[in-house]
UniProtKB/TrEMBL annotation:
Its cofactor is Cu cation. It comes from Aquilegia coerulea. This is Laccase. Its main location: secreted. It is an enzyme of class 1 (oxidoreductase).
């Protein structure tokens, strides 16, 4: 019986089983919070940036989209109504989705997309997480405008492991395209060439004064002297890692991907697409008689074209005892200081910054690093090619092929029915979704040396199956095929510990000796170093089908993605509940 047959059988069970959808609430009663309801209406909205007006896909007509507030232990019920012509799915990036994989959101992985005129309710509980995460569209390139922050406060009567800030400010970086991003990616996939790059980077949707026609579209952060502010930074850019700095101010890093870290100070930070970072900004002890630029621009490691521009916001100190008109006039006359950012290709800074990130590893916030490993995997990640179709003009490498991307040389082919549905209903009749995804490269080569002559990838929908509670060690190795490049890899459904990283080819005989199994940083998105490798460990304690992909959107589109299937455990609270009755159908 094929996957479509299993799905057909499964549909018959959905209505009967949907009443069991509330099972996760029984299991997580000890984390009980309140239920918070949101309605997201997906609708078109005209927006002007860079003196260019276009209609974009938004939530509730807002760009960026609305903030979601919650406390650890709260249940979120988010009703999404699709009023646009595009198919839609939303992902709650970094939320563990413990036994609620039906709400994770990636199209054709955990759900079929929400079609025009349809509604789907995402229903999940936040368990054991607090900090900054974010939500975004997870289909095609629609996340260029469909994104917003998720602010998770500690439980009532709990506090931060640092002094309470004066104010908390979400700062979300994005990219603005003057043309429709769907047209950009469609053209790139048709021609096999690289996509057109963005026209600007943005801070909270605003390009800032360094771009033409954008002085009025500038994010301004107003602060007072002798105060501490918590900045919740999110990189929602499609294709670029970003450096960020505020002139004449230092930042204290306290959180990465909604996990507390050992605090350290820095003038500049690096944040990859998909990542979040909480920082404390301590203002000056007196009014400084100046204003200060905050800048973000790309960290570039690949050989393709990129948006070589800089977005800017302004840090302003509130003037004491001044009328609004006189304050405005005075601010215009104040000197404006500009920070010095690292060079575009400063891999040394990127490496040193990432090595400073370490878990708190305290009794209250432990680092539960798997000390033993049940399954080991070695994945190469990088670019490659597909042959140019007959009688087709291609704009990929040498103008004779099409760009592709792969893991272990397999470029992931998206299914036409959601994998989680196929998996669930196969399990319901005592069958298991099988896999042929290789645990290591089928043909080893000098991964960071001279690239092989044959750069073609294979294509397929291949998965890895893990028994419940398997401890996993995964080495992700960059390759030099079509040029080495940093790849921010995001794993759905789990946090993982970054136990090691290095440059060149990973050596399984010597490199594990340097692994940090005491206080490694815990993340959901990690950069594979350009021309290097990263080692992560995680516990497969969440049944379902979980996407893993590069968060550079063009690499995802080219196939740098795969999925893990985590089987049910033996106990009732180790099993995936049935799907909700309103789960979209393909």
């Amino acid at each position: 019986m094929g996957a479509s047959s299993f799905f057909s059988v499964g549909v018959l069970f959905i209505t009967l089983l949907s009443s069991l959808w509330l099972l996760p609430e029984i299991v997580i009663a000890k984390h009980a919070g309140i239920t918070r309801h949101y309605q997201f209406d997906i609708q078109m909205q005209k927006v002007t940036r860079l003196c260019h007006t276009k209609s974009i896909v938004t939530v509730n007509g807002r760009f960026p989209g609305p903030k979601i507030f919650a406390r650890e232990g709260d249940r979120l019920v988010i009703k999404v109504v699709n009023h646009v012509q595009n198919n839609i799915s939303l992902h709650w990036h970094g939320i563990r989705q413990l036994r609620s994989g039906w709400a994770d959101g990636p199209a054709y992985i955990t759900q079929c997309p929400i079609q025009t005129g349809q509604t789907y309710v995402y229903n999940f509980t936040i368990v054991g997480q607090r900090g900054t995460l974010w939500w975004h569209a997870h289909i095609s390139w629609l996340r260029s405008t469909l994104y917003g922050p998720i602010i998770i406060l500690p439980q009532q009567n709990s506090s931060y492991p640092f002094a309470k800030p004066e104010r908390e400010v979400p700062i979300i970086f994005g990219e603005w395209f003057n043309v429709d991003t769907e047209a950009i990616i469609n053209q790139a996939l048709q021609t096999g060439g690289g996509p057109n790059v963005s026209d600007a980077y943005t801070i909270n949707g605003l390009p800032g004064p360094l771009y033409n026609c954008s002085a009025k579209d500038t994010f301004k952060l107003k602060v007072k002297p002798r105060k501490t502010y918590l900045l919740r930074l999110i990189n929602a850019a499609l294709n670029d890692e970003l450096f960020f700095s505020i002139a004449n101010h230092t930042l204290t890093i306290v959180d990465a991907d909604a996990v507390y870290v050992k605090p350290f100070t820095t003038d500049t930070l690096l944040i990859a697409p998909g990542q979040t970072t909480n920082v404390l900004l301590k203002t000056k002890s007196h009014y400084p008689n100046a204003t200060f630029l905050m800048l973000a621009r790309p960290y570039v490691t690949g050989q393709g074209t990129f948006d070589n521009s800089t977005t800017a916001g302004i840090l302003e100190y509130e003037l004491p005892s001044k009328s609004s008109s006189s304050a405005t006039n005075l601010l215009k006359k104040l000197p404006l200081f500009k920070p010095q950012l690292p060079a575009l290709n400063d891999t040394s800074f990127a490496t040193n910054f990432s090595k400073k990130l370490r878990s708190l590893a305290t009794a209250q916030f432990p680092a539960n690093v798997p000390q033993t490993v049940d399954r080991r995997f070695f994945f190469t990640v990088g670019l490659g090619t597909n042959p140019c179709p007959k009688n087709h003009t291609c704009q990929g490498p040498n103008n004779s092929s099409m760009f592709a991307a792969s893991i272990n040389n397999i470029s992931f082919a998206m299914p036409t029915t959601a994998l989680l549905q196929t998996h669930f209903f196969r399990q319901s009749i005592n069958a298991i979704l099988t896999t042929t995804f290789p645990t290591k490269p089928i043909i080893p080569f000098n991964y960071t040396g001279t690239a092989p002559n044959n750069t073609n990838v294979s294509n397929g929908t291949k998965l890895v199956v893990l028994p419940f509670n398997t401890s996993v060690e995964l080495i992700m190795q960059d390759t030099s095929i079509l040029g080495a490049e940093s790849h921010p890899l995001h794993l759905h459904g789990f946090n993982f510990f970054v136990v090691g990283q290095g440059f060149g080819n990973y050596n399984p005989n010597t490199d594990p000796a340097s692994f940090n199994l005491i206080d490694p940083v815990e993340r959901n998105t990690v950069g594979v170093p350009v021309g290097g490798w990263v080692a992560i460990r995680f516990l497969a304690d969440n049944p379902g089908v979980w996407f893993m992909h590069c968060h550079l959107e063009i690499h995802t589109s080219w196939g740098l993605k795969m999925a893990w299937v985590v089987l049910d455990g033996k106990l009732p609270n180790q099993k995936l509940p049935p799907p909700p009755s309103d789960l979209p159908k393909c």
